[in-house]
Amino acid sequence: MTVSEVSLPEGAFETLGDRIGFVSLVDSMRSDPALKVVNSARISYDKQKQQFDERDQKLCQFLWEHGHTSPYRHSFYTFHWKAPLFVFRQAFKYQVGSGWRKYTVDGDPVSLEVFDVLFDTDKGCSWNEVSGRYVQWTAEFYVPHTFRSNPPHGNKQASVDLPGDFDHARERELMVEECREAFARYEARIARGVAKEIARMCLPQNLYTQAYWTVSLQGVMHFLEQRLKPDAQYEIRRYAEGVYSLVKSDLDRLGITRESIIGGLK
Ligand SMILES: Cc1cc2nc3c(=O)[nH]c(=O)nc-3n(C[C@H](O)[C@H](O)[C@H](O)COP(=O)(O)OP(=O)(O)OC[C@H]3O[C@@H](n4cnc5c(N)ncnc54)[C@H](O)[C@@H]3O)c2cc1C
Asked: How many Å apart are CA 197 and CA 93, to the nearest integer?
């Protein structure tokens, strides 16, 4: 269900087939993320390189496969997500593996590592989201065309499509109706003078919102490890597919395959 047609940012990965949900890459910081992995590893031997080559790829694979993850924490990405609230509930759980900040002391830049040692700051991902206290929502809801049921052997695995004789179209109509009604009540409440922060309380979880996510390459890989898997909910899996496609060229250069990410650390 959509009231406004939004154009997707350039290069965005469309996630949920409705021209509303997407994930796009805002920034991957300026220096080569692949070279940063090897140079941060090689600093142990006081070595640095200007160009990434095949030997570096082997080193990167070795580091990843043997759980030497810290070199993967120097390369950062900022993603822009537009996703339903319930997808963000899952995404916001990814909290570790990033600490991109520009620190200065007396005007001079201070490296993150020094700052962390000195001030023992956290290394969390940074999520920033549209505020429903300040912004009046647009009536954009994610409503699937195909509905799913829990698998017969329990609800721990990913759900499966309901059979063809299930009335998917009717179920969708009912959901759209509910969203419309809830949104109309939300707008009416605001018109009666109720603050947005209160009026929003009865809006459904499939309302679209947006957030920026800044995260290290290791944090990205950890997210992909869990959310590319078939047991992750389909909707967040689509965002994982999007994130994967946006970092794939860097992962290819590092020699890190999709299988080795999903397989996890040894
Ligand atoms: C299929 C699936 C089902 C899920 N079901 C639920 C659910 O029912 N309810 C629910 O609340 N969540 C659920 N989750 C979310 C899950 O519990 C994690 O919060 C989420 O996957 C993020 O993973 P993480 O904690 O490893 O990530 P991050 O927070 O990014 O942490 C990354 C890694 O850092 C380390 N770390 C993080 N914090 C600490 C710490 N305090 N101390 C020591 N080490 C730390 C751990 O090694 C961790 O794996 C589910 C996740 C999946 C994939």
From this structure: 23
Q: What is the pLDDT of residues 66-82, one digit of tens each?
A: 888 888 888 889 999 99
**Which residue's C-alpha comes closest to atom 27 of ligand 1?**
94
Candidates 86, 90, 96: which one to mutate for ligand 1, based on the most atoms within 8 Å of Cβ? 96
> What CATH number labels 13-142+207-263?
3.30.1360.170
CA of 222 relative to ligand 1 center, distance in Å: 10
Structure tokens at 100: 């991109």
- Distance of alpha carbon 154 from alpha carbon 200, whole angstroms: 33
Nearest atom, ligand 1, residue 90 CA: 15
Q: What is the Å distance from ligand 1's center to 94 Cα?
A: 7
Question: How far is the C-alpha of 57 from the C-alpha of 98, rounded, in Å?
Answer: 23
Ligand 1 mean position, distance from CA 95 (Å): 8
Nearest Cα neighbor of 189 from 131, 132, 129 is 132
CA distance 90 to 232: 10
Q: How far is CA 100 from the centre of its chain?
A: 16
Report the catalytic residues: 227
Residue 141 DSSP class? B
Residue ranges covered by each domain of the chain: 13-142+207-263, 145-205
Hey, which residues does 96 pair with through a beta bridge? 124
**pLDDT tens column, 17-57:** 999 999 999 988 777 888 888 999 888 888 888 998 888 88
**pTM summary value:** 0.85
